[in-house]
Structures are given as structure tokens and as C-alpha cells.
Amino acid sequence: MNAIPQAEAAKxxxxxLRKVNKWFGDxxxxxxxxxxxxxxxxxxxxxxxxxxxSTMIRCINRLEEHQEGDIVVDGVELTNDLRNxxxxxxxxxxxxxxxxxxxxxxxLENLTLAPIWVRKVPRKEAEESAMYFLERVRIPxxxxxxxxxxxxxxxxxxAIARSLCMKPKVMLFDEPTSALDPEMIKEVLDVxxxxxxxxxxxxxxxxxxxxxxxxxDSILFMxxxxxxxQGPPSTFFANPSTERLKLFLSQILGH
Amino acid sequence: MTPMASAxxxxxxxxxxxxxxxxxxxxxxxxxxxxxxxxxxxASTAITLVMAYLLLRGLWGFFSxxxxxxxxxxxxxxxxxxxxxxxxxxxGTGACWALIVEKHRFIFFGTYPYEEHWRPLxxxxxxxxxxxxxxxxxxxxxxxxxxxxxxxxxxxxLMWGGFLGLPYVENERWGGLVITLVLATFGIAFAFPVxxxxxxxxxxxxxxxxxxxxxxxxxxxxxxxxxxxxxASVMFPLFLPEGMTFDxxxxxxxxxxxxxAAYLAEVIRGGLQALPRGQYEAADALGLSWRLKTLLVVxxxxxxxxxxxxxNSFIGLFKDTSLVVIIGIFDLLNAAKTAIVEPAWQGFGxxxxxxxxxxxxxxxxxxxxxxxxxESELNQHRRR
Lengths: 255, 384
Prior knowledge:
The complex is a heterodimer. By secondary structure, chain A is an alpha/beta fold. Helix content of chain A is about 40%, strand content about 25%. The longest helix of chain A is centred in the C-terminal third of the chain and has 16 residues, at about 180-195. The model of chain A is unreliable at about 1-10 (pLDDT under 50). Chain B has 2 domains: about 40-70; about 100-380, MetI-like (MetI-like fold). The two termini of chain B are about 55 Å apart. Residues about 1-15 of chain B have low confidence and may be disordered.
């Protein structure tokens, strides 16, 4: 359990969770989570709904607060210190299930908002960089539109570009394709695969097992708030060692 | 006639037999529209005729009262007082607009010195010009704030005077429409930021701030504006050290601002709550500080959502300024009321009230139309 691939072990840890515990009221949502993600690693997190996957990655940029244990991101420990939190959030991009674009701003304004105001990049430079990332996600022609005028797949690609504009060191994906119509899933996954191939450190909560197989260095299975099993895709799918994972895999791969 | 002729044969093209609307259906001329909707049946025709009769009679009655039978001027009697006998002889069948002709200056300017009336008149025009400029999108830049500061300074100078050749006029003598515009303009301008602060404060995580905001809002909303004004005017000075006084108008203004802010705060909070949580999370995840998140993401969206109820509050405020009568300030309505106290003009209340109603209506209707335009312009992003 929790085996870190040997090839990665020499690399610097980007994200470390040590004995992280979290409760929602009486509900113990994260139990003794230990996790290390190295620079350049692609980690896919799966598990049944309510298993704490989203909560875990939302703890990494403090959208949720953990109650016990340590979380260290790129050498900075997450504490209640607001400056630490903002510093970490600048380095960690996040893509949400519901896109969460700002509907009152155009696509271009969505992309330049944080670079201009948080990173203090000059407007012209921010716009150039925004156009570069829009081209990367293949929708530069939509720059002047409002998010409401785009399809779900396009919105999610804008959301990915928006995160990338902050030049993050890590990208967190929280079920990025779960709210999409089936025919739009591929266009989003393609962008994510490209990003992975360029060496971005990624943690991705998803049920897209095809994506996990092709992209992930490591897959992690969570159930009832704990990490049950973790391993490279080859062993993860072929030789699941726990009953719980076998059951889960049979459910999602069974048809 | 064979059965085949009445029923369409199977396989017959559907378009050829499907019932079509009669030619000149929806979208025909106004005559067609009237025939369909007003004279469609005997009952509908009867109702149309009765309604048309009542409507025309009402309109005719008003027209005849307001124009045909109206008296526009009255002669002066031996004492130089207006002689309103011609008006009284009408016994209400015609309007006595002579009242307005005679008293319009008092209604507009209150007890402001007669020979200085051009000053408040200019102020009214200045106010209207400032409103108009603020409504135009192409003037929305930093200079607009400067224009307002200059405009309001000029208004203050015109109203008070006291230097640059204008004689001083203490604000006890201000009155009429100018007072209404002053109270409403400053009321809106100051209540708005206070309300935003209160709404944000009420949602604060710091218990001291949220408790203060909740207490303030509930306390102020729980009492009538009249009692707030009364307290500001009568009780507040009692707490001040001897000899220290605040201007009465200023106290009334503060009362109105504090009162409106409490209502407006709840309206704005409604907008804040309507924002999906994902918007806050996305802003957080991008590393925006609380200040940036609030200014760039939360407020722009929340305020757009609540334009209609906000304008509701502003229109309410505009008309509520007339309650300052309780502390003896002569705004538009009270000036009109005072104008008909004079024995010669007693009994002509309808004319006075119709006149000020029209003035109130013009301002409120303008606000409402403008907000409609603003709403559709700012919510363009909602359209697909």
C-alpha cells in the first residue's frame, strides 16, 4: 500500500500529505491520508462517490480545511496563515466539475483576471499569454465571448486555460468531465493528455479509466475516507489486491 | 359527397390537409387584431363597448377638468392678494392652475430669498445634468467622480453662497424640489456603499463584525423612518456637548442614509447569496485575496442580480424624503402643502398634489426606465 514508484522516488516531492484527518461534523471524511506526489507525477484518484476523493484534493489548496495532520505543497506548509494559503493557491491550479467560469467576464477577461491582479502581470503581456493558452486548448476564436455562449466542453477547456495562465506548478482536476455530455468528454481529455505529456504535475479525480491507463503514473483508490490501494496502472487494473478495489473495478469496467 | 372527400386519404401529404390559420391570422393589421380580441363574440363586444365608454368618459372628464374648464390666472384684488373667486365659482369642475402659476416658485424653492431663486433653479438643472451624464455609458470613467465632486461643490456654493459675490443663505431657508433632490442624491450616494459594507459584514466570519451588522440592520429596520428622523432631530442633540450643534438638514440626511442603508444591505445580501459557491471557490483557487475576490468577482455579479430591488429601494427613498416634514424641513411635497395653507388658496389641494405628483413621477419613472436599460445592458452575458 502507498508504494511510491521507485523511479520517481529520487525526485523532489511536490505535494505531501501526512496523517491527514478531516471530519464534517461527526462524519469522518478523511482517515489518516498519507500521500506523496513528486514533481512531474500524474496521479489519478478514483473511488465510489462519498469516498473523500474530492475532499482530499480540495484540502490541498485549502478550499477545505483539514483538522489533523500536515499538508506541504512545494515546501510550504498549509497553516491558517492567510499568506501561506494565498501563496499555495497561486502555485496550484484547479479545474472544477462545474467549470466555475466567471459569467460576467469574457473568456479573455476570465483568463487575465488573476494574472493581472494577483501576479501583477502587465495587461498586454497577460492577454498575450491568455491567447497562447487559448490556442493550446484550441479555442482562440472564442476569446471575446462570454462563458454562457460556449458549450460545456469549451467552457471546461477555458477553465483549464484559466488555471494555466497562472503558470501553476501543480494542476488539480476535480472530476473535470463528469458534468459534460459524452461527445464533449474527449476534447477535454485530449487537452489534459497533452498537458500530462508536457510534464505537468497533476492530480486528477476522475472515473475515466481510459485516461487513467494512458496518462497516470500511479492510480489511487479511495473508499470510506481512506486510501485503500495505490499502484501503477499495470498492476492496479490487472492485479487488484483488495476485495474493495476488485468490486469497484468490476462495477465501473463491468459493462 | 363521398366519405373520401372529407377525410384525408392515408399517405396523403400532411401539409396539404393540415389546418392552416386563416389568412391574415396573428400579425394581421390592427383592425384584424381588434376584430379577433375585442369583438370576437357578443359578450366580448359588449364588454369592449362598456369599457371604452368608461375609459373615454374618465379621460374626457380629466381633460375637461385639467384643460377646458381650467383657470390659468386670477386677478389681484385691492390688497394685492390673489382674487380666487373665479376658481371657487367653478366648484371643482375645472382645475385652478392659477395656484401653480402663482405658487410654483414656492413649491420649487421653498422660502429661499425671492430675488435669489435663480440659484436653486440652476442647482436643479445641475442635478439633472449630473444624473444624465452618469446614465451615459461613455462617461463611465474616473473623470465622472471628479465631475460629481465639482458639480456638488458648485451646487453647495450656489445654495449657501457666502463668497464669490453670492449672499449667504442659511439652509433653514432652503426648500422645495432642491431639498428633495439634495436628500435623495446624497441619500443614494452614501447609503449604497454603507449598504455594501453592511451586507458583506453580515456574512463576515468574524463574530464581532457580523453581530454588529445584524444588530444594526435589525434595529434600524424595526423602527419607522419617521422615528429615525425624529431621533436624529430631537434626541441626538441632547447627547452632544453643550453648544455643539449639527445642522438640521445634515441630521435629516444622516437619518435617511442610515435608514436606507439597512434596507439596501438586505437587498444586496440577497444578491450575494444568489451567487453559486463555485464562484467563490474558483476565485479562491486562483489565489485572489478576499478584497480582490469581492471587488472583481462577487460584487459585480451580485449587484447586477439585484438591480430591480435596488432601484425599488432608491425610488422608495426618493419619495420617503417627504417625511422630513416631521422635523420641519420643506421638501417638494411639504412646500406644496404649505402653499395651499393661505386662505385665498385653501381648498385647491388637488391641483397642488397633482402637480407635485407629476414631478415625483417624472423622476421615479426616469429611474425605473434607466434601470431597465442598465439591466439588459449589464446582463448581456446571460443571453446566448
